[in-house]
Amino acid sequence: MKKQRVSSAVIRRLPRYYRHLSDLHDVGVVRISSSALAGSMGLTASQIRQDLSCFGGFGQQGYGYNVENLRGEIADILGMERGHSAIILGAGNLGRALMENFHFDRSGFALTAAFDIRPELVGRTLSGVPVHHIDTLEGYLQSNRVSVGVLTVPSSAAAAIAERLVKGGVRGLWNFTNTELAVHGPEVVVEDVHFADSLLALSYMITEET
Predict the structure, then answer these.
(1) Contacts of 44 (CB under 8 A, 6+ apart)
(2) CA–CA separation, 175 vs 110, rounded Å?
(3) N or C: at which end does the chain have fewer Cβ atoms within 10 angstroms?
(4) Nearest to residue 85, comparing CAs of 114, 117, 110, 104?
(5) Final residue of a domain: which of 43, 61, 77?
(6) Rounded distance, CA 70 to CA 66, Å?
(7) Looking at residue 52, which CATH number applies to its domain?
(8) Distances from the Cα of 59 to the Cα of 33, 34, 35, 52, angstroms
(9) C-alpha distances in Å from residue 198, one per residue of 41, 99, 168, 194, 202
(10) Calpha distance 186→171 (Å, rounded)
(11) What phi and psi values does residue 121 have, to the nearest 5 degrees?
């Protein structure tokens, strides 16, 4: 596999490829050409070939792509078989919704714990996930390898919680707090999720159509 810097745009298309190939695999498609894959995804064949060439050659001329093999290769590129783990910080409405409805395991993550401060939540198990008091976070991080912290705490607490996670060795922050995080650590990656941004972009597009 080639070792090179890959653009953010390519990285963000990889989950789309994986999801689409999974759908094809589920309905029994064995192989597909780059042009057919492009047509079903709204891309161009050259774009797909260019994206995949960043990681090596996966297709065969005159055959196309083996759907199961390519799906597995992309899963490997995305690190889905690396045994990643995640914890949720904030077991309120959003945190609980993620525990109940988001299938972390399908993305290669084991959701191992949640943390909160409310007595009515601490000590409970929600959707199979134990809820600990936030004061025990450092001890938990010392005893357990955690890849990603999922922040669903109030925005006022986000920076302090993020700093504690980073000091505890967590390298990825999935941030739902609607605040920008300035974390200290070159190997720490923050993925901000702003629901309003997506809705406002949709607002712009439907406004332009009228």
Answers:
(1) 38
(2) 18
(3) C
(4) 110
(5) 77
(6) 6
(7) 1.10.10.10
(8) 8, 8, 12, 9
(9) 20, 22, 32, 7, 6
(10) 9
(11) -105, -40
- The mean pLDDT value for 49-72 works out to 84
Rounded to an integer, the average pLDDT of 27-41 is 92
Instruction: Give 113's DSSP letter.
Output: E
**Is 90 in the same domain as 190?**
yes
User: C-alpha distances in angstroms, 44 versus 41, 56, 78?
Assistant: 9, 19, 22
- Give the model's pLDDT for residue 59: 67
Cβ-based burial of 162 (10 A; exposed 0-12, middle 13-18, buried ≥19): buried
What single-letter amino acid sits at 42?
Answer: G
Tell me the backbone φ, ψ of residue 200, rounded to 5 degrees. Answer: -70, -35
Measured distance CA(26)–CA(183) in Å, rounded: 40
Instruction: Decide: 89 and 115 in contact? Cβ < 8 Å.
Output: yes
185-203: per-residue pLDDT in tens? 778 999 999 888 989 999 9
Q: Can you give the residue range of the structural domain that contains 91?
A: 84-197
If one counts the domains in the chain, the total is: 2
Residue 5, classified by CB atoms within 10 Å of its CB into exposed (0-12), middle (13-18) or buried (19+), is exposed
Tell which of 77, 94, 119 closes a domain.
77
Using DSSP, state whether 162 is helix, strand or coil: helix
62 has pLDDT over 70:
no
